[in-house]
Structure formats: structure tokens, C-alpha cells
Amino acid sequence: MRRALPLLLILLLAGGCSRMPKIIVLEDPLTAAEHIELGVAYERKGELELAKREYERALRKEKNHFRARVNLGNVFLAKKDYEQARAEYLLALEIRPRDAEATNNFAWCAILSGEGTEEAMARMEAVVSEPPGRRPEFLDTLGVLLMRANRPGAAGEAFAEAETLCRNADACPESMLREIREHRGELPGRFPSPSPTPALIK
Questions:
Q1: Distance (Å, whole) CA 79 – CA 28
Q2: Burial of 156 (0-12, 13-18, 19+ CB in 10 A)
Q3: If we measure between CA atoms, which residue out of 46, 44, 99 comes closest to residue 69?
Q4: Distances (CA, A) of 129 to 105, 138, 167
């Protein structure tokens, strides 16, 4: 039997390689960052499924890639899959706790879904309590959360500061200022001033 084994190998080799199965190993040549760039390009064109696929590929390359997690959360948010969006933002925040952008997007997920607003508000308050987070867009988000939590006074203060910062900043786009003013304008409709006490005739 031992003599038969080498003979079998010689016969196989002599028979030519054409009979041997060809094994093809497919390897993804792109880096996680390149998959994210592709995903962003697809997202800008509104091709959310293709963007999602690229972010997932990036995460297969690097499981704890912060940008891939946030961007995947954004895709789920755009698709109104709030549960999945929330999960991705929380994973991103595990990687970078108190990151302003991830916290902001997590907060908008809570605002749009109506779930988890208390947690989102606590996270946003922590972000804006530090100088880097005291930016118009984050104060505006906090204002919306406070308004939804029936805290009109605190919401009004957040919107007022957001508007002031936006007006005084060189890089604050007009669209952001308009959005802050729209949110601020919702306050009187949600929380009308109490009617004045009628004058009594004596």
C-alpha cells in the first residue's frame, strides 16, 4: 500500500494539471476607508442599499471603525429603521464616548422615533456642556429635545444661544440659521402664553 501511494501521485502529476481543480481565492482589495468613500458616494446619490453594503464591508474589515458605524446609522435613519439606527449609533458611542456628531445623530433618532428621548437629552447636555460641543447645530438639537420634554424655558435658551452663535459664526450656513429659527418658532405654538386675566369691572 505504501508503494501504491507514490505511484498514484506520479500518475496524477503525469496526467497534467488540466485535470486538477483550480481553486480561486477572492480577496477584497479595498481598505475599510475605501469602502466608506464608496458608501458616501452612493449615499449622496440616494442609493442607500449600495451605501449600506459598503459600510458593512468596511466593518468586516475593521469591526470597530467609528465612521462606518455612524454612516451605517445614518443610512438606517434615512430608511426610518430607527431601531437599527439607534443600535449603530450606540456602537459608535462605545468606540468614542461623548462624540458630538454620533450623539447628535443618536438624538435625532430619538426625536424622530419618539423613543429614548430622556437618554438622548442627557447625552446631548453632556456634549454641549464642553466648549467643543457648544455649537449651533448641537444646541438646536438639544432645544428640540427640551421642547419635546415639555421644558419650554430651557428649550428657548438653547435655541437663542444657537441662533446667536450661528449669526456670529463665519461658517454657519443660512439653512442652519433658518432651521434654528423654525424650531424656535414652534415654541409659542406648543406652549402658548397663558391668557391674561380679564379685567374685572367693579
A1: 27
A2: middle
A3: 99
A4: 17, 11, 20
The answer to whether residue 136 sits within a structural domain is yes
pLDDT digit string (tens) for 135-165?
A: 999 999 999 999 999 999 999 999 999 999 9
Residue 105 Cα to chain centre, angstroms: 5
**Domain for residue 23, yes or no?**
no
Pull the grid cell for residue 132: 467643543
The pLDDT tens digits for 56-73 are: 999 999 999 999 999 999
Note the residue count of the chain: 202
Query: Quick one: how far is CA 29 from the chain centroid?
Result: 26
47, 79 contact by CB (below 8 A): no
Distance CA 30, CA 42 (A): 16
Same domain, 93 and 122: no
